[in-house]
Amino acid sequence: MNWEIIGYIGSGFVLYSFLWEGRKLRILNSIGALLWLSYGIAMGSGSIIFLNGAILLIHLRKLSIKRGEKISLKKSTEKNLKKTDKKNFKKSTRT
C-alpha cells in the first residue's frame, strides 16, 4: 500500500475541514487526523502518531460534549414546554 497517498488524502481532509465551522469542521478534521495517524503508524513516526492521536481525541471529546449538550437542551426544553402548556391550559379553562 502506498502510505504517501494516505498522507495526502489526510492532508486534503484537514485542509478542506477549515472551510467549514462547528461540528462539520470537527468531523472532517477527525477523518484527516485518523488518516494521518494511520500514516504515522505505517511510517513509524512518533511525532505524527502523537500529534494526530491527540487531535483525534480532542475532536472526539468535543463532539461527544456537543452531542450531550444538545440532548440535555432538548430535554430541558421539553420540560419547559410541558410546564407552559399546563399553565396555558389552566388559564384557558378559567375563563
List the keywords:
mainly alpha, single chain, rod-shaped, 0% strand, 95 residues
**Beta-strand fraction estimate:** under 5%
Q: H/E series, N to C? A: HHH
Structural class by helix and strand composition: mainly alpha
- Ranges with pLDDT <50 over ≥5 residues? none
User: Based on CA inertia axes, which overall geometry fits?
Assistant: rod-shaped
Number of helices: 3
Explain what the structure shows.
With 95 residues, this protein is an all-alpha fold. The chain has one domain. 91% of the residues lie in helices and 0% in strands. The chain contains three helices and no strands. The longest helix is centred in the last third of the chain and has 49 residues, at 46-94. The protein is rod-shaped. The model has no long low-confidence stretch (mean pLDDT 82).
Topology overview:
Layout: H1 3-17, H2 22-43, H3 46-94
Helix pairs in contact: 1-2, 2-3
Brief overview:
This protein has 95 residues and is mainly alpha-helical. 91% of the residues lie in helices and 0% in strands.
